[in-house]
Design brief:
Number of domains: 1
Strand content: 25-35%
Number of helices: 6
Order of helices and strands: HHEHEHEEHEHEE
Shape: globular
Distance between the termini: 47 Å
Oligomer: single chain
Radius of gyration: 15 Å
CATH topology: Rossmann fold
Length: about 180
C-alpha cells in the first residue's frame, strides 16, 4: 500500500469544529482519494464517509481503516458526472474537500450541509503552476480570492491563500465556513 501524505494542517487545526459538527449529521470527505483526511478524522474518533470515484483508492481506504479499527464508510461516486453528491440535502454535519475542484459541484456541496454544518475546503490556486507540479488545467485551479466567492452563501469563518508549508508545499486557498441556520 502506498504511503499516505499527512493530512492538511486545516484538518488537524479544525478537529474540534469537525467533532462538534458531527453532532449535526454525517461527516463526509469528498473526492477522498486514498483517504488521508478520512483516516485523520476517523482516528480522532469521528465517524466519517469517504466518497471517491476510484474503486482502487476506496479499497485501500477500507483496508487501512479496517487495520486501524476506524469508523470509516466508503461510497463510490463520480462527483463530476452528474455534478451531484449521492446524499440527501442538509444531511452533512461537515463536508471536507481537499485538492479537488469541480465548480459545477459547488451548489451541491452547499446543499449537502445541515443547518450550522461545517465546510473545510482547500485546493490549488493558479500559482501552483509555478511549482511545475500538480494541475495545470485552469478548470482545476482557483483564481485569487475565488474560493470564498464560490461559497458566498455560507458564513466564512476563516480563509487563507498562499504557499502551504511542509514536504509537499503547494499554492492553495482554504476556507472554513458554516451553513446558515434554517429560518
Amino acid at each position: 500500500m502506498p504511503k499516505r501524505s499527512p493530512p492538511s494542517d486545516l484538518v488537524t487545526e479544525q478537529l474540534a469544529r469537525i467533532r462538534a459538527a458531527s453532532q449535526l449529521g454525517v461527516v463526509v470527505d469528498l473526492a477522498c482519494g486514498r483517504g488521508r483526511h478520512t483516516l485523520a478524522v476517523a482516528a480522532a474518533g469521528i465517524p466519517v464517509v469517504g466518497i471517491d470515484r476510484s474503486r482502487a483508492f476506496l479499497a485501500e481506504l477500507r483496508e487501512a481503516a479496517t487495520q486501524r479499527e476506524l469508523a470509516v464508510e466508503t461510497l463510490r461516486a463520480d462527483l463530476e458526472n452528474p455534478a451531484e453528491i449521492p446524499l440527501r440535502s442538509r444531511c452533512c454535519g461537515a463536508v471536507l474537500v481537499f485538492r479537488f475542484l469541480h465548480r459545477p459541484l459547488i451548489p451541491a456541496i452547499a446543499r449537502a450541509l445541515a443547518p450550522g454544518g461545517l465546510l473545510l475546503y482547500e485546493t490549488f490556486t493558479v500559482h501552483q503552476r509555478a511549482l511545475g507540479r500538480g494541475p495545470r488545467n485552469p478548470d482545476y485551479l482557483l483564481e485569487p480570492g475565488e474560493l470564498p466567492e464560490l461559497f458566498s452563501e455560507l458564513e466564512i469563518l476563516d480563509q487563507w491563500e498562499g504557499l502551504s508549508g511542509g514536504t509537499e508545499s503547494a499554492h492553495v486557498a482554504r476556507i472554513t465556513a458554516r451553513a446558515g441556520l434554517v429560518d
